Amino acid sequence: MRKFALLLMVFSFFYAPSLFAHDKKILIINSYHRGFQWSDDVLVGMEEVFYNHPEITTNILYMDSKRISSEEYYAKLRELYKLQLKNHQYDLIVAVDKFAYDFIVKYYHELFTTEPVLFTGLEQFEIEDIQKEGLEDRVYGILERRAIPETIPMIAKMMPGLKKLYIINDASANGDDSEPFIRQAMSEHNSEFEIEYIRSATLEELEERFSKPNKEEAVFFIRFYNDKYGNLYKNSQIASMINKSALPIFITDTLFIGKGAFGGKLVPVKSVGRITGDMVIDVLDKKLEPLHVKTLIEYQYQFDVQKIQQFGLYPNASVKAFELVNAPLTFFDKHRKFVDAVFLISPFLLFLVLGLIHNIYMRIRSEKELKAIELQKNKHQQFIIQQSKLAEIGEIFSSIAHQWKNPLVEIATIAQEHVYGSDDQGDEQSNEYVNAIMVQVRYMTDTINDFQKFIMPSTQRTVFDVSEAIETMMKIISHNIKYNYIDVSIDVSHATNLMVSGYKNEFMQTLLNIVNNAKDQIKEARETKQIKRGVIFIQIYNHSKKVIIDIKDNGGGIPIDKLPNIFDAYYTTKESGHGIGLYMSKLIIEDKMGGKIRVSNTAEGACFSITLGNIS
User: Fold this and answer.
1) Which among 74, 185, 219, 373 is placed 20 to 30 Å from 599, CA to CA?
2) What is the pLDDT of residues 494-533, one digit of tens each?
């Protein structure tokens, strides 16, 4: 008997607290229906936290507000909940998203007594709403902040040629909460490109609108569950529209990543649930004060590999750290059953090793190919940026040229009127003066026209004469060359076909870079009295169906240790140089025109050699 009493005392000491501990009861009111992925993922995240807290029990009520949202429905729902919650006491009420939160605040005093309320998933919170109901001493919450202001500039950086951005946000109450953030972001970027904001449409209309590819357009998808007629779409229907889009679609949360969306800076929805679960524990343990409202700033950069390949867009330039999803299956994934069998049957272990080696080899090759594609993409973007800069300069010069041409016309008109309007209008000397003035006016006008054509970037590949392009370029800079005491000679005596395909103005910019570098080197050699007069010799000839242009000078050449890096970006031999001229020259000749550019030293100076393909 004594042994039994002793055992009872020990049992009571160790186990009685857990047997008689107060269970924590939580009521979760979900704004939506079971199967609505966003709220389902939030609940999954919360359950992961509650798994380690067996003292917590939950009861979930589904409001189904996506499908029914009338005031009459909410009034009926209030009466139903009053019956369901009668004689039930909870330690905490959790409102999942806006509809549940607004419902609880409005009918709190009819449904509850003193229970604290924790909301999650809202985008906006106004303290005045709960002060009106006298609830400021029992409300906590988590605000979900979508990365709307950050995503638009990210899209623009990934797509330098972006001219139009569509923003999709449905006409629901949730869409109303997102609207101020969208409008603010639009106001900051609508001067850079056109923005079309879509709130009223159908899924079929969106699918039709985005069915044609356009490299200058993109879509920023916030949400689209309800169409303009109030119909509710399933996630599978929305994912189908996104996947069919011929334009890249950027998103704000993880619901559609891997289901057709390109990617973006995403709110991890399950993390919203886990963070909510952690706050539930803190509220129950009374570690937080009322009105503790936390803004969720946890994001994940995620991009779909297949969409990267489809649209040729790469996040590397705009995002440093990101995760790739939907990657092609590896050898191990494709042959998992086979690999498992190999592990079980040791004689076949060799096959596994060979498969793994093959997998490593393919992965290394794929990474090299991806890097090569990315490098080519970056070079193309730099070429576009260079063309954009030339276009801006060309527009500025066009304005200047327009202002210059009008006075030149006036000068010519005044001279003619002055001479021919006088009594001795037939005077031979006066005619000579007018002719001299007209010659100078025509020369200045031709110079302005030539330079205006030269500075504008080429919009597309054309067939042009190399010799004519060089003559035009030298004509523009002839005075600068002359005043620096440099003699220029051009030899085309061994050329039979000088027609090539490419970008004429960019080709002339390349030659201008080389000739200007030669001029600077010659000027330095003259100042140090190494030479008396500068010489630039340009020889153009054909060889093996190629056009070859050799540009030689007597400026002393390039230091031997600097020759291997002379075409590298931002590498310069000048104190005030930027290191971009020769890099862009190589990019234009080799990447855009399919030619070759090389440099070497002669006995007197440098020799740049350009090789281009002939057009028969």
Assistant:
1) 373
2) 888 889 998 888 888 888 889 888 988 898 888 888 888 9
